[in-house]
Amino acid sequence: MCRHLTATACSSHGTTLLLLRQPAFRFDAVFQGPLARPSTMDPHMQTRFSIIFAALLLIAGCGEAPNRKATFPVKGKITVDGQAPGTAIRVECVPVAGLDTKDPTVSGTECDPEGNFEISTYQQGDGVPPGDYVLTFTWQEFNMMQRQYTGKDKLNGRYSDPKSPTAQKVSVKEGTPTDLGVIALTTK
Q1: CA-to-CA distance for 130 and 127, rounded, in angstroms?
Q2: Which of 14-18, 56-60, 71-75, 143-147 has the lowest mean pLDDT?
Q3: Which H/E stretch holds residue 135?
Q4: Residue 141: beta bridge partners?
Q5: pLDDT at 183
Q6: Class of residue 162 by CB neighbours under 10 A (exposed 0-12, middle 13-18, buried 19+)
Q7: Average pLDDT in the 140-146 region?
Q8: Count of CB atoms within 10 A of residue 78's CB?
Q9: What is residue 175's DSSP assignment?
Q10: Could you tell me which residues come within 8 angstroms of residue 99 by beta carbon, excluding any fewer than 6 positions away?
């Protein structure tokens, strides 16, 4: 059965699409349920249809988003009361000028247990579009059942409001990676 199977692969942005095709495959021969109907399509027509369908999937799945903005790396390290946090702290980039309503993007990340982070917009660690931002930080427990962060912010909400006087400002320049160094947060 597998000797006539052909495979086509397309890889883009860390995702691989694999299409398997068997010439003149008849779905009704496998599915014998109450809705099964014999195929009236010519086997050669089925092959042509499969090729056209596979080409459409490749075209749709392998391109970049048409309005994707250029991004530049932003990294840093978080300490809490002079120590590594030990668990993830959520970092969000809030544009000072407000959300771009034409081509909105959301940039953020979580630090590792040592406090290191690289901000992402489209894919892990790619950075953020150029501009001025305020960073917000929230430190909550991750609820595995709800698949979200819940509970009280261990930073007492001190860094979660972009308009707060304790807000960390960052300016991302085009063509330049940004290293924020150590960002010292406190629970007190």
Answers
A1: 9
A2: 14-18
A3: strand 131-138
A4: 150
A5: 96
A6: middle
A7: 85
A8: 25
A9: T
A10: none
